[in-house]
């Protein structure tokens, strides 16, 4: 076990985790394997993150129907319960029993437990018991109010957002860095001016769910509160970081959130089989650092983070989310930190997979700041400018200069 890292002020951090969360299991041939959760928890424990004095762990719980109904239609919850009891059936209009979201016995309870995990994380921050909280099992951002989609049954990220709204918060910022558009969360808060959703993802022209373009900007009562950066396939670290820093800090400053909720799907990694982005674990860690910094600057540090997509279950997901946990605990673990040999041996002996020796991918983290100028011949710059032109004027910002 190692706890190597820089000495920084300890931040009370709540991590929601227990092995029952692996019950969210669509079967052995499904891309979303619960193995990714097990290996993440094992790596975090081996790295000493769970044992840091500022970190407390808590179990999740199965959310009640009334809690689920805060963001989901009651008839949809009833339908999930039905297929959960009778997993042989298909409800195509509600996305249940499909290839992406096959029904399984106990699906309602397993999905409601992930939902409960993000409620528990939000409650820890609301109560003041923690400043940061993480539910890496969550991030089911495709689930809409009345439909399952994209491996997501109940939208726990939306649950966390709603919990702060119910407590009286009037400016909640949701940032989604998954390779896939955070369409379900966007749709749930589409016309709510109290919530801004920002999603950076691979363009819907080449990737599921086919949405998330710059002109999706919010409902009639909430113009400019849905923000989408639709990145071209093949976007790598420098381009992704340029896009993030050309949009997210500026809008965060304009919106002045009281809390930040973030979704950290790591399926944008270059080795992930389900997207065409070319990111590194290093950039995924940098995204977490940047979001933590924005929470410090604008929301008195209040930050709730979830997991999300991620389908290279041994070599990518555990490293990315263990680094997220370290960032949340303000335990700056360098990307050069060795992956513990005991963990690598376990993965090799148990699952036959050789995993990387370092926590990071050893990439060059340099990126070109937006302030150096806009290149109309660059695909990423055109994407960023489309978003800035659509959204920035609605917040009193200049799309060319701010």
Automatic annotation (TrEMBL):
InterPro entries: AcuC (IPR003085), HDACs (IPR000286), His_deacetylse_dom (IPR023801), His_deacetylse_dom_sf (IPR037138), Ureohydrolase_dom_sf (IPR023696). One of its GO terms (biological process) is epigenetic regulation of gene expression. The keyword Magnesium does not apply. GO terms for molecular function: histone deacetylase activity. SUPFAM superfamilies: Arginase/deacetylase. Pathway: Ketone degradation; acetoin degradation. Keywords: Acetoin catabolism. Residues 30-326 form the Histone deacetylase domain. The keyword Cytoplasm does not apply. Belongs to the histone deacetylase family. PANTHER family: HISTONE DEACETYLASE HDAC1, HISTONE DEACETYLASE HDAC1-RELATED. This is Acetoin utilization protein AcuC. It comes from Arthrobacter caoxuetaonis.
